Amino acid sequence: MDTPGRLLRLLTLLSSRPWWTGAELVDRLEITDRTLRRDITRLRHLGYPVEATTGPYGGYRLGAAGRLPPLLLDDDEAVAVAVALRAASEGTASGLETAALSALTKLDQVLPVRLRERVGALRTVTIGLRRAELPPVDLDVLVVAAVACRRPERLRFRYTNADGVATDRRVEPFRLVYTDRRWYLVAYDLERAAWRTFRVDRISDALATGQPFERTDPPDAGALVARGVALAAWPLQALVRVHAPREAVAEAVAPTIAVIEPGAEGDSTMVRIGGDAPWIADFVAGLPWRCEVLEPDEVRAELRRRGERMARDHR
Q1: Domains contained in the chain, CATH given
Q2: Predicted confidence (pLDDT) per residue in 178-192, tens digit
Q3: pLDDT score for 114
């Protein structure tokens, strides 16, 4: 083993345990005592505070307040770090964007080709509806889906729906979208002949088939997921006219909470919200603008009850 490789191996060993005897390090590195002492001196000259003690219980340890030692990451760890750094570099309020981008650039320079494709796929096919922390996810499934989106090639997987029923799916993947809670795959379902969103945490046994495809009618993936999260899961939906400009409403209302309908009327904005009547009433009452619930009757009745109660309690 050459000297740089031996020093890196020595640093890795010192980082993995709080204490090593000289004999243990000599045995692990297959070197002599003299070479070990020289390598310890080289590390100290490079700025790594390697501490040593003598005697029958003597040994070596990596002290504090030195330079950050090189990190040895396995494939999944390297991809996960790159994904997290990418999210941080695109943030809007963390204050760490510049440092995250610098760290990501250094990581990109040393990633093997097989990992660079996986990280690149995640970067190019991912859409964030929220700029908070990335939600937890099975990285193996996420990477397989991302690479299939980027190439593109058809994907097979087993999908478990909200009722616990599992089915086999064949899809043409398009984009990965994350909210503040979930990751979603937007794909064209070949059996159902329609665009669908799939929660990534409900996908298992994901396998890229190697079959390329071309699709010329991609949807707005972010809008598709937002509408599904905000509306599709709820049996009751309300249509609300908000007396405020579209830009102001879009800034104040998260796309996963309510969907802004196309076609504004003057200075008003049409918003569709899913939920039960009390929740929708709470949401509408909390908006800072004048609002009119156009449908359904249940929500209007709930708001009237609340207004009568408030008026009664505050005579």
Answers
A1: 3-62 (1.10.10.10), 75-221 (no CATH), 234-313 (3.30.70)
A2: 887 788 999 999 999
A3: 77
